[in-house]
Amino acid sequence: MAGNNRDERTPLLDGDAPTAGRADSSESTGTRIKRFLQRNGVYLIIILLLLLVLIPLIIQSVRNSSEHHGSHDHNKKHHHDKEPSNPSTNNTELCTSAACVLASANILRSLAPSYEKLDPCDDFRTYVCAGFDASHEIREDQAGVGNLQIMNEDNQLILKHILESPAPKDTSLFWTAANPDQEIFTKLQDGYNACMNETLLSHIGSKPLLDLLWQLDEIYPEKSKSSKKDESLTKAVEYLMEIGVGGPVSVDVGADDKDPDVNIVSVGAPWSFGLPSKQYFERAEIVASYKDTIGTVLEALLKEAKSGVLSFMYEGDNESGILSKDLVDSLVAFEKSLANAAPDPEDAADVTKYYNPRTLKETEAYNSEISITHILDKFAHGYTPSKIIVGSPSYLKDLSKILKSSSRKTIKTYLVWKVVQSWAGAVEDPAVQPLLRFRNKLQGKAPDVRQERWRTCVSSVGNDLEWIMSRFFIERAFSKEAKDLGDQIILDIKDAFTIKLNESEWMTESVRQLAIEKVHLIRQKIGYPTRSPDITNAGELQQYYSNISVSATAYFENKLSVVRHDVRESWSRAGKPVDKDEWDMSAPTVNAYYNPPANEIVFPAGIMQAPVFYDPSIPRYLSYGAFGAVAGHELSHAFDSSGRNYDQNGNYTDWWDKPTIEAFKTKTDCFVEQYHNYTVPTKNGRLPINGKLTLGENIADAGGLTAAYQSWKRRDDEKADLMLPGLDHFTKEQIFFLAYGQTWCGKMREEQIVQRIYTDPHSPDMFRIKGTTANSREFREAFNCPVKAPTCELW
């Protein structure tokens, strides 16, 4: 899409992206196994104990194989004595490699201890994850814990070791000990060390933050300095944009949905208004705590600033040293008005609602208080767009009314608070600690808990210098074999989806053929970028980051340099061709996405990792059940409630005819109702899932799992997978679904679940298991469920 009204990526996960790793493909097999076991040392005891149990099982299995002349008992029953429907012939030959033993241990450890007594058809989430729940606790610094989060933390540990070690020597991939590798490594390490120097940061305190507020005060003083039309609010919004702070309006650059080869400007509502969503402004306890936080933080900064920049906030006309309570009340009321004027998240993400092309003159007419022309003059450097995408005309109109009816003091307090909210995390000062405590409260954490500093700093430098970090990560944690398997799985998923489309009788023939063409034209990006920038080319990375200043003693300034650079780079694209070689996620990211205007699916190396998710050395039903379902999920987004609006070339256009659209709506209404009927318990009663907000992701989950299963089955028919030791209780088909279910094992604090329900287009993880398997005919057949028909079915 164009700009920031909606994130054009359709990621697998929301929020921070998780990560992981495996050994260099150039190492010997023995070395790879050694590294593999070292990284999973927490499982060594489990593996050893498991082997004591498995050796007799293996011996018995061999005896049985001999007695039955290598045949498998096709009438083998699973736990509740129901016949498996069309089970594969489970090869009695076992995979006993270290990777297979570990994979088996992971599955057994995650299963419910009494899974034999449970019916997976009734509650597959408990069946597949109760063991995980029993063996994992949510740490004080976590809002939740799950397999993908664990993978992310494993990956963070790899990056920590890189950042805290000397520069690497020459390697067989692409690292060298000479410049420019040395220079970019130094820049990366300096950024990390600057973040880690808490003593220095505490000594500096809030000064860098106050410096930003001083600059804002110069731009937007308490009283207008001009008798002419006041442009200071526009200039203040521009200043916030320069330093990466979201203001009352979002102005951004991105691919034009109806001309995806060209970047265009978009204008709309921001994503955040101080609290996570508009529903929070209706919760009295949260609002009271929020107001108290604002008052405490601003009053502390008032005292540190001493005079000038924040003096307008004092109670009364003199500098009493007390923050005006009325001013805080008016600030929160202002934010609430903006939030209520903004479109709901499901509408903000709907291209049929946010794609409203207007001329610059028409756009200006919506809001007389903030000049879009002035913003373009400053950032676009002479580019005059023939059209602008207005995400929500009604929001711009309401914003104009809200600004006109608000006092200058209220607006200035709002601007100050936006800067504080955005940059408080980059300073170490007691003045901003109440904001950390409030954020912890919103996630259900203890008030003063903080994650380990190194994790904060790995994430920080990984976000700021993502492609240098990606170069190191690939060197340490990816291989050619992993990339090749990813390519194979995705090609198989494309084939499976093509077959599915051919079988979709609800689509008319003309639409079906265009849809098949769209599948064939989907671009796939695997592992890491080799263009824009090429992370295998140190000289290119050196040039890419040449305009970013990084010092080992200037953490705040480092981040400010990165933000200013990123803003300049983004605006330099206005009116220019879209660079379709760019990636929106760095290599260590444990996530994936579909980009509709580019018609591309992207899978960073971080999500293609052992042991939970992906490994070329283990039976394919595991990799297809976990990673394959993700690949299918992203490809399915091309035909979900949003992606279906884009044709084979990424153009937003009416390429579906009326009968197909009507049939699609009938089928997808089922998903909306199904998920809306799922609820989560909270202290205020049960909260339903937003079936409309989560529709696209729920469709993708269902389509992805089906495509992955059918892809694996065809591969298994060509060459049967080995069985995993200790899992002879299951068919391979059933283990495929165990692998899928365990991907989403996890638990979350109540407050975090509530926030996700209000803001996240993904269903909570428990329903990504429950809802998706309920919509899988293959799952019901694999476990011989009484009802084979899925609850809802699209593909």
TrEMBL record:
<dbReference type="InterPro" id="IPR018497">
    <property type="entry name" value="Peptidase_M13_C"/>
</dbReference>
<keyword id="KW-0645">Protease</keyword>
<dbReference type="GO" id="GO:0005886">
    <property type="term" value="C:plasma membrane"/>
</dbReference>
<keyword id="KW-0812">Transmembrane</keyword>
<dbReference type="GO" id="GO:0016485">
    <property type="term" value="P:protein processing"/>
</dbReference>
<keyword id="KW-0472">Membrane</keyword>
<feature type="region of interest" description="Disordered">
    <location>
        <begin position="1"/>
        <end position="30"/>
    </location>
</feature>
<comment type="similarity">
    <text>Belongs to the peptidase M13 family.</text>
</comment>
<dbReference type="InterPro" id="IPR042089">
    <property type="entry name" value="Peptidase_M13_dom_2"/>
</dbReference>
<protein>
    <recommendedName>
        <fullName>Endothelin-converting enzyme</fullName>
    </recommendedName>
</protein>
<feature type="domain" description="Peptidase M13 C-terminal">
    <location>
        <begin position="591"/>
        <end position="789"/>
    </location>
</feature>
<feature type="domain" description="Peptidase M13 N-terminal">
    <location>
        <begin position="120"/>
        <end position="529"/>
    </location>
</feature>
<feature type="compositionally biased region" description="Basic and acidic residues">
    <location>
        <begin position="1"/>
        <end position="11"/>
    </location>
</feature>
<dbReference type="GO" id="GO:0046872">
    <property type="term" value="F:metal ion binding"/>
</dbReference>
<feature type="transmembrane region" description="Helical">
    <location>
        <begin position="41"/>
        <end position="59"/>
    </location>
</feature>
<dbReference type="InterPro" id="IPR008753">
    <property type="entry name" value="Peptidase_M13_N"/>
</dbReference>
<dbReference type="GO" id="GO:0004222">
    <property type="term" value="F:metalloendopeptidase activity"/>
</dbReference>
<feature type="region of interest" description="Disordered">
    <location>
        <begin position="66"/>
        <end position="90"/>
    </location>
</feature>
<keyword id="KW-0862">Zinc</keyword>
<dbReference type="InterPro" id="IPR024079">
    <property type="entry name" value="MetalloPept_cat_dom_sf"/>
</dbReference>
<keyword id="KW-0378">Hydrolase</keyword>
<keyword id="KW-0482">Metalloprotease</keyword>
<keyword id="KW-0479">Metal-binding</keyword>
<dbReference type="Pfam" id="PF01431">
    <property type="entry name" value="Peptidase_M13"/>
</dbReference>
<dbReference type="Pfam" id="PF05649">
    <property type="entry name" value="Peptidase_M13_N"/>
</dbReference>
<keyword id="KW-1133">Transmembrane helix</keyword>
<dbReference type="InterPro" id="IPR000718">
    <property type="entry name" value="Peptidase_M13"/>
</dbReference>
